[in-house]
Structures are given as structure tokens and as C-alpha cells.
Amino acid sequence: MSSDVIRTLKWVFGKGGLIEEYKRQEQMLEETPKSVASMTRIFAPQISRDFPGMNLEQFEALAQQQLVAALQAVSAGNLESVARASDELKEQVSRQIEGNRAAGVRETYEQIRIHQTEISNYEKKNGTCVITFQSAVEHYHYKEKAGKIIWGYKDRKLQTKYNMELLYVQDAAQQTEGNAFGLNCPNCGAPMKGLGQQICEYCGSPVVPVDTRVWRMVRFSEVDYHHV
Hints:
5 helices; Tim44-like_dom; Tim44-like domain-containing protein; Nuclear Transport Factor 2, Chain: A; NTF2-like_dom_sf; alpha+beta; flat
């Protein structure tokens, strides 16, 4: 074996070699929070003009609290932690729980930690205003089936990002079937024709009209993750 080959092997398997460097990179990725899309300085003044006196820090805290509650609900397999959330958010969490149950999967989120939250978008359309917050989140996230891990790791943290959308209805008259934001029957999931509809035309169950006077978190989505 040539001296060049020997030197290469020593470098690869030595303390300063590729293996040690790979381990360092793994550790760095596991501990480094994701960067969020910060548009707060642009959108905060616009929101303040549209809603004078609005405390954005309170709504940021609301978005963070409800995100954690939603992930905890998925882990618990029930809606207890989101009992006071919007119908839209409960419906999303319920679909995730039922999907896991149907597949025989247990999905777990543990040690959830939010590093940073910023406004990433603000949009007005169809009589609604939507603020999107984006958070850099750290947690353990894995899925088990028949006692085996089928996705993720129990012993490795996941650094990821979530979007949380908060909705306010400015003009309920514009909320009609086809342009409404997430209007579905909370009982059967059928589309609703308007915010004031009291009875579902599909299943006949009573529906509590949407309160158009408050901001509510209606959706969350994971936008980036890296398992190391």
C-alpha cells in the first residue's frame, strides 16, 4: 500500500477526518435553529394602520401557544389541548389524528421549543385579512407503527419551521361558497355557503355561526425540516 493511500486512510478515519467532521456537522444541524422569513418591519406598520391599537405581540404569543397545543393534541391523539381553538384548527388537527389512527401510526412531538417568530406575510382578499407568522421550532418528532420507528428519531432533535395563519373577517358579505376561507361544517366537513349559515345542508346538524369580530388561528403548516 502506497504512502499516499495510508495518509488518506489516516485522514479519513483519524480524529480530524471526514467521519469526525460529519459528526460535527450532524451536531451543528441538530442544534442550529432555522432562519425564518422576517417581514415584520414591512407588514407591522400596514397591520397597525388597518387595526389601530392592535397588539401584535399578543397575537404572536397566541399563534405560538396554539401551534404547541395543536402538536400536543396530535401526540395525545385527542382534541383536549385545542378545545378552545377555532373550528378550522380543530378540524385540521382532527384530520391528522384520524389519518394516523387509520394507518395504525402513533405520531409524537416532544420537547417543543420555539426559538423565533416573525410575521412572514399579510394579505387582504375576499373580505378577509390573514396574518402569517413563521416560527423556527425545535422538537423531537417521530412516528411509530407496531412498536417500530417508521419516520424520524427518538434521540435526535429536529429543527424546522412552521407557518401559522390568523384570520379576521372584515366583510362577511363577501364570504360566499367558492371564496370563503376554510368554511366547512365542523361535523361532516362539507363546504358552507356563508358565515351565518346555521344548519348544514349535507348532514343537517346545527352549526355555530363564525364569530367575525375576532382574530383566530385557522391553519398551521410545516414548511422546512432537516433530520440529521
